[in-house]
Design goal:
single chain, alpha/beta, Rossmann fold, Dihydrodipicolinate Reductase, domain 2, 2 domains, five-stranded parallel β-sheet, 12 helices, binds nicotinamide-adenine-dinucleotide
Length: about 260
């Protein structure tokens, strides 16, 4: 059975622990880490013999490291996991687009090392078809993210650019590439990052962000034009029960991914 290290014991980390405890997936939880002592104690009451890591790189005896904390953790442990040939599943994928040095390191990894970095689909999906379409080349890839009107009311980008939010109909908040979107909207970047890494990269993948007063949940639409056809994938995600900023699907994508690689 593979041994897991889980860094970040919030919604996604807890969902992984629940899935292991209820035997939906078969892993041994070897080591855990969080900056919040209470989060660690909560896990320790359920898993008596789990090792608490002394620092972020204390995963020497694990086969797989899952990061479900914050983007800065991805950069801090990236070299160490690769040096040790440990499988690494980062959930804060936005780090690969926003952090210049990490972006370059990831782009320049050879195939042998890259196979240790495993990227779950997160809050979107369709990557099996997208990689098939990409075999004949992708002409355009657009991510259109719609969020409820109230999400943008105090948004820094909206205020700085004097964008007038229409209370009755949709308003385009941002149009640009994935790199610029990551800079301006750090909280919504994981989806754009995941899509851009799988398709045209952070400069060529387009992102459109809209405020939509008619919706209550986030909607991601992926639009692809290619030689083999035109495609539209739509994801209407519900927020997770404990962290309204995280789509429930993101945690489930990690569980289903862990199931695929468990043997
Ligand atoms: N790939 C995707 O599509 C996708 C979707 C949703 C969320 N995410 C990302 O996954 C991550 C986790 O999401 P979540 O909903 O579980 O968040 P959460 O806020 O519920 O939990 C995060 C946990 O990480 C801990 N933490 C914060 N900083 C830390 C640090 N420096 N070192 C160790 N632990 C630290 C917090 O104390 C908390 O317990 C976030 O970065 C989020 O943006 C990715």
């Amino acid at each position: 059975m593979k041994k897991l290290a889980i860094i970040g014991l919030g919604f996604i980390g807890q969902t992984v622990i629940d899935a292991i405890n209820s035997q939906k997936i078969g892993y041994q939880i070897q080591a855990i880490y969080d900056i919040d002592e209470k989060a660690i104690e909560k896990v320790q009451t359920r898993l008596k013999n789990v090792r608490v890591m002394r620092n972020l790189s204390d995963f020497y005896d694990c086969d797989v490291v899952i990061e479900c904390a914050v983007q800065s953790v991805v950069e801090k442990i990236f070299d160490k996991v690769l040096e040790n040939n440990i499988y690494f599943i980062p959930m804060s994928i936005g780090a690969f687009v926003t952090n210049e040095s990490l972006y370059l390191k990831y782009q320049n990894l050879n195939a042998e090392k890259k196979k240790f970095i495993l990227l779950p689909s997160g809050a979107i999906g369709g990557f099996d078809s997208i990689s098939a379409i990409a075999l004949e080349g992708l002409n355009t890839v657009v991510l259109e993210t719609r969020k409820p009107y109230h999400v943008f009311e105090k948004n820094a980008y909206v205020l700085k650019n004097n964008i007038h939010l229409n209370e009755n109909k949709e308003t385009i908040i941002f149009e640009g590439n994935a790199k610029e979107a990551a800079k301006q909207f750090p909280r919504s970047i994981n989806v754009a990052a995941r899509l851009s890494l799988a398709t045209l990269g952070r400069e060529e993948t387009r992102v459109r962000i809209l405020s939509d007063p008619t919706i209550k949940q986030n909607i991601h639409r992926i639009l692809i034009e290619s030689k083999v056809g035109s495609y539209e994938f739509v994801f209407k995600n519900k927020p997770s029960p404990t962290n309204p900023k995280t789509s429930w699907l993101a945690a489930l994508s990690l569980i289903s991914f862990l199931r695929k690689i468990q043997d």
